[in-house]
Every structure is written in C-alpha cells, then in structure tokens.
C-alpha cells in the first residue's frame, strides 16, 4: 500500500465500492477514447460544453469555487475545473452524471430554503454561498457517518463527488484536461516542469554528502 | 524502440513459451533467447512504449492504463473461507509489456541471509505455515549482482552495516538525495540508526538508449518516458528482441496450459485481442504471470488428469499469500522540501531488519523516507487529520503542505498463512466467462502488531527530525495486495511446495514457474529485486536442463 494505491482505492470507494467496479465494467468502451477526447478539449481555454448547459456550468463553477476559492492565487475557477468536469462526465466519470443532476437540484432547494429571494446558488453573495455550502457539506458528513461498507452500492453523494472532481480538475497534469496553465500546480507551489536538478529544496541545499556514522565498522 | 525481430506461428513448436513479460518473464526471455532458444512471450496487456507514457493521473488512476482492468478481469475479496467473496479491487498488478516493473517505485533491496533460513532460526510460529527456502542467499548472490549490472541499479555498496555480503559494487552511484532523505538521515543519526542511500532500479547515469533520471517525480504508478526506470520494458526486453529468437506477443490472455496424455505441457492456450483462441506450442512452458495470475492459471488448467489444477498435487497452488505488511507516518516541516521532485525515495534504514525476539515480535522491516504522491493523490491522501475539506482553510493547507510533507514508509514481513490465498471464484466470471480471481486474506496478528511497533519508531524519527505536525494512519487489516508473494512456493518436498529449487513444478516435468509466487518468505518488502535474481538463476537452471536433454526427454 502507498499513496498511489490508496488514492486509487479511495477513488473506487468513492464510486461506490462494488458499484464502482460495475460502473467500470459498463463503461469500459467509453474510457478508451476518454483521454484522447480530454486531450483535444484541453487545447482550448474555454472549450465547448458537452454535458452541462451554460446555466449548470455556472452553478458547478460557483460550487467548485467554494471548494478551492480564488484569492491571491488561482482557484478552481481560474484552473478551468468546470470544463474538466464537463469532459469527465462525458467520458470516464459518466457514471456520476445523475449525481450532478440530483445534486444541483438539491443545491437549488437549499438555496431557496435559506435565501428565498436568491434565484440560484451562483447568484448568491459570497457570504450566502458560504452558508449554503456549509449546509451541503455538513449534510454530506452526517450521511457519511454510516460507513460505506455497511451500505455497499450506495450512491456517492454530491459533495464528495464534486470535491474529488474539483481536486482532479485543479491539479491533474494539464494533459488530463484540467489545471489550466498549471494554475493549480502554481497555487500549491509545484513548479510546472517535468525535469528538475538538485538541490530540490531547503534541506538538501547544503548537504555535505553521505557519510558513514563515525566509529562504525562496515559490518555489524 | 526496437520492433520484434522475429514472429512465430502458434503452430510452431518453439523451445519456450513464457506467460508474462514482467520482472521475471522479461529476464527469462532475455536469458533464454540469448542462450540460443526460440522463445515466445505471451503478455496479457498492451505493448506500450516510452512515447505512450504520460503524467495524466486520470489515465493512470482511473483508466488503469498500465494495470489490471477490473472491468474485464474482476477480482473478489473475502477475509475468511466462511465468507462469500465480493467484487473489490483487491489486487493491483502491471498489465502491459514490462508488467509491474513499468509502474513500480523501483526500490531495489536485496533480501538478507536471514530471509532464506528464518524458520530454522526461530522455529514454528503459531498460525503460520513457515518454511526455509531450498536455496540460500549465497546461491542467489551472483544473480543479485547480475540484476544490478544488467538492468541498471544505482546505489552505494557497503553503506548499510546490515547489508548482506556482495561480490561487486553497484554499477552506478546513488541518485541525488532529496530533502526528505537529508532530514531522515539526520534524525536517524541522532537516534543511533543508520540511514543510507537507497538502492534504486533507476539510472543515475545514462546507458545506451536510456537517459539518466530527470527527476520528474512521476514515478510510482507511471511509466518512465526516458527509460531511466529499469523496467524490463526498458532494460532486458530490447536485448531479448535483438537476439532474433524472441517474440513478445501482446494482448494475449492465456487461460490454460494444455497437457497431453502423458501429463506433459504442450503449450499455452490464449485469447487474442479479437477473442480468437490459439494454442502456442512449445517444448516447455514457463509461467511468470505474477503471484495472482500464475496460480489462477494453474487452477484454470485443471483436467481429468489434474483435477485439483495443474501442478497442484500438494494442494499448495494459490496458498500462503504474503503481501508484505506496511505502515505509514507523515510529517510536515517548516521549510520547503519540494519532495515532488525526483524519485520517491533516496534514504532508507535497515536497523529493524531483524527485530530482537525480546520484543515479542517476529520478523522485521525497513523504513524509507519518501514522497510518492502526485499533486492529486497528495490532496486526496496526504493531509493531516482534521484538515478542512474545502474552502480557504483547505486551500491554505494544500498550498502549505504539498512542498513540506514527507512520509516514512515501514515495510515488513508477512508471515505465510495457509488460508491466505488466491483461488477461483465460484460465482463471479470475467469478461470471457472464466472464473474470476478470488483473494482470501487476513493478516497474521504478528504482522499487525509489528507494524504498530514500526509506526511508533517512524513517528519518533519524525519527532527527532523536527516535524511540526506528524501523524500515523491507523494500522488496519489489509484488503488490497500489490506484492503477490508465496502462492506457488519453492521447496524440496513435493507435499509442501509447488516447484523445486530449479523452478520446475514437482508434477509436470516441462512446466516451470518463476515470479513472486515462487518466494517462500516475504523478506521485508521490496520483492522485485529478489524475483529478478530468481529469474536469472532459473534461466541458468532451465538452460542446463534443456541442454542436457532433461526437459524434452
């Protein structure tokens, strides 16, 4: 086990454990062309939407911006996360489409309940968005108190799904169709290069070279 | 990249058909073709080249570009034989030419002398099916050296006071130290431990057709675009093809070893990419399909002559699965480590390789300082407990921690337990209608206790290193295996082992097995080096048998 394997495992769990595997089975042919599709779409800063309507995209963008907000550095919005999600739902994350459809309806309902005068989430003030999104996240946490293994096949909830997709869209290698102009990598301090020379950071810059512990012989 | 220099027809009776082109199969292909034999390698996955590799995590994590695809090859899991197994991705292995050696981390430890004779030293352990190897470290040492020089391993000989003897230094110096290596080494020194440059199957100096490591950081899970990682794809498979006697045939799903009325193997039956069935004829068959698929293939090859599965008179096919135990500890530091640059690991320590029996623990382990995250996997798995899940606090945490975090990975013994196994699922079928791989596994209690102990030491090291925040995820029973070891173990007694010391099955004279399934003990993790040393040794043994007429006779 390591981070690669645990990331993969967590992702499959997010897809609903056994349901995730079933989804993979059902959608394999779609996966084959997915990367190619993403690569083509990634060439444009604002590619055409293929799954979301413009209105839906507005909502998803506003929601993903709650997860990774824009401040002194780029957030989900600037990294083009919504375009990554749109392409993903067309291809390798297509199983999650109903989660978005239901989730967006629920967000609309929560928005109307908390702020009756506000037409939709994306039209709310930043303060209102924070309140609405907090309610969505808290509700998700409450539902996830039931371990997934006790409810195999349970649908992954909207918050969890959106969160993982936003993280992918923000930080995936741009070849994967997100992280526009390396905005996500820059925000977390990863240089946008694929080749580096030492020293790499603070601690190795004055390293004198490996030395045997003094007084030790070669063999124990 | 070279293209296959030779192709054979399935009806051509070649000298050897090898199932699997991974760590072991690639080495056997090179050695046997170099020794003058005609070889066909049947690989389940695609023949990807360096140019096909990418840093796109959606391809690697989600689409399984390089690994087994559970949509068509489902896996089921259960803890005990009393349970009905459920579909779960319980096993991960490489599925492309080069196998798991394409995507692995490339940590390349030798096993130590103790790993081959530990049973004699400590005796029986309750609940474990423990045995000595029929070979010793001394038998394998020349082959460890051959691996290092032929595939390309970087390291510093004699740097660890716990290292076993070696006949030659490494062929090239260690890779550059990382920030985590420096911090780990200083903390170990403070505590009286002995951190040393990690041996890695990654080139620190270029070789013909292969670049030295460029420190891109996309190592674990990814194929190397410049051939610096010493996968069999980049190292020995081109040599095999250059002999003009070896064909690597991808997209071939072998599902049966065919035998004749005399109980001899006559070849391997496979589905091609169009699902047509072929029999590749061969004078001898070698299974290097990994510790999950090799036993599965033997069980799928049952016949009236071999009702319990081929080469399974002992009943040991698929049993004694040892995935290695593991634990993690994380630390966050004040200054930027930038450990996303470079291969995952640059310093390890083996002070706990053989634990003091007074601790009440059996076996031991090694610790390494590492950062094997991609940006995505870091944010999903690398943040301290209690970190906000979204919003300004979340963003601040990922921005601060990504460059300042590293892990100490504790690798350790898995004891062999007979009920821990791979078998055929009676209910679930793969996309070809064949029984799915079923894993039954529950850690031996010792292994879990030992990992608790190791994790506590790792946290002490992080403390000594000055970590501002540190934590260790709870030790849990494993339900996911990557190291697939011990499932067709080697031994002198046909009643308690599947192959002999020559890797020949006890039951079928011209059937050989060589991969993780051959191991008798699990070492302390990092088995690939040993699997490859075994493959070089097996090649010598098989060549000698073939040349003396003992295989075809």
Helix content of chain B: 10-25%
Average of pLDDT of chain A? 81
Shape descriptor of chain B = globular
The greatest interface here is: A-B, 74 and 85 residues
Spans of at least 5 consecutive residues with low confidence of chain B: none
Oligomer: heterodimer
Low-confidence parts of chain A: 8-42, 148-153
Helix content of chain A: 40-55%
Q: Name the average pLDDT of chain B.
A: 97
Q: Please tell me how large the radius of gyration of chain B is.
A: 22 Å
Largest sheet of chain A: none
Distance between the amino and carboxyl termini of chain B: 38 Å
Element-level helix/strand string of chain B:
EHEHEEHHHHEHEEEEHEEEHHEEEHEEH
Radius of gyration of chain A: 21 Å
Largest sheet descriptor of chain B:
7 strands, mixed
Terminal CA distance of chain A: 31 Å
Discrete helix count of chain B: 12
Number of domains of chain A: 1
One letter per element, helices H and strands E, the order of chain A comes to: HHHHHHHHH
Secondary structure category of chain B: alpha/beta
What would you say this structure looks like, in words?
The complex is a heterodimer of chains A (220) and B (553). Chain A is built from nine helices and no strands. Chain A starts with a helix and ends in a 33-residue tail after the last helix. Chain A has 220 residues and is an all-alpha fold. In chain A, 52% of the residues lie in helices and 0% in strands. Mean pLDDT of chain A is 81; it is low at 8-42 and 148-153. With 553 residues, chain B is of the alpha/beta class. In chain B, strands 1, 2, 6, 7, 8, 9 and 17 form a seven-stranded mixed sheet that branches. Classes of the chains: A mainly alpha (220), B alpha/beta (553).
Task: Outline the fold blueprint.
The complex is a heterodimer of chains A (220) and B (553).
Chain A: H1 3-14, H2 18-32, H3 34-42, H4 54-67, H5 81-90, H6 97-114, H7 126-143, H8 158-171, H9 183-187
Helix pairs in contact in A: 3-5, 4-5, 5-8, 6-7, 6-8
Chain B: E1 14-19, H1 23-34, E2 39-42, H2 57-62, E3 75-78, E4 86-87, H3 100-103, H4 113-122, H5 137-152, H6 179-191, E5 195-197, H7 236-242, E6 246-249, E7 253-259, E8 265-271, E9 277-287, H8 293-300, E10 325-332, E11 345-349, E12 365-370, H9 375-381, H10 391-401, E13 405-412, E14 421-429, E15 435-440, H11 445-464, E16 469-471, E17 511-513, H12 528-547
Parallel strand pairs in B: 1-2, 1-9, 2-6, 3-15, 9-17
Antiparallel strand pairs in B: 3-4, 5-11, 7-8, 8-9, 10-13, 10-16, 11-12, 12-13, 14-15
